[in-house]
Each structure stands twice: as C-alpha cells, then as structure tokens.
Amino acid sequence: MNGKDENAPFDSKLIENWFEQFFLDPLTTYLDKTVFRIDLFETENEFIVEALLPSCQKENIHVAVNGQELSIKVKDHKKNHPHSHNYKIRTVTFPMSIDELKIDTRFEHDILEIKLYKKDK
C-alpha cells in the first residue's frame, strides 16, 4: 500500500498544496516562479532580503532604495540572442522608511543578501 486511496477521484495532498500556495500569497508565489524568488526576514533593527539569482553575475545586479521601497533589477541575457537583454525586477514595500545610507549587500552562491536598516524615528 502506498497510502493513497485508489478510489479517490483526485490526489488530496496535491490539492492541499495548491490551495496553500494560491491562497496564502498568490502574487508572491507567481513572482517567485516567473521572475526570481525572494525571502524576507525582519529583526528589531533591520529587514533582510534574500534573492535567489541562479547563474547571475554580480555586475548584472542593481539594487535601489527609495523611502520604503527596495527594487532589485537583474539583467538577463537571452540564450538565443546574446546581445539582447531582458530585465527582471522585484520591488518590495516595507511598512517603514529605510535608512538609504546604511545598506549591506552580499552576493555568494547565487544568493543576494541585502540588509536594510530601519530608519530611526
């Protein structure tokens, strides 16, 4: 026995996973699959953003902060057309302003880590 009900008209685990992905945050799930994945973390003094950028080169990444928004722009070379470029962009809006003068970034093993410090009130 494999634990599945052979008489069931559908795979209940598959349906459950789909509902979780769709209803918990459908836009984020869609962007993670079509643009690039990001994970967000918050501590008392900072926000940490991790972007998964496989086979990306550091010089093709641009990070910009404006008030409460962080934008990550990645130049994507098309494989069939090496001289044409596409850009993939993700923008995150935070619940408070970010200190634009105090940002730490690191890019290792296809992961871009950005530490954004919360602006003092």
Automatic annotation (TrEMBL):
Domain SHSP as annotated: residue spans: 29-121
Parts forming coiled coils: none
PROSITE patterns cross-referenced by the UniProt entry: SHSP
CDD domains, per database record: ACD_sHsps-like
SUPFAM superfamilies recorded: HSP20-like chaperones
Pfam families: ArsA_HSP20
UniProt xrefs under InterPro entries: A-crystallin/Hsp20_dom, ArsA_HSP20-like, HSP20-like_chaperone
Top-level taxon in the UniProt lineage: Bacteria
Family designation: Belongs to the small heat shock protein (HSP20) family.
Name this polypeptide is given: SHSP domain-containing protein
Biological source species: Caldibacillus thermoamylovorans
Lineage: Bacteria, Bacillati, Bacillota, Bacilli, Bacillales
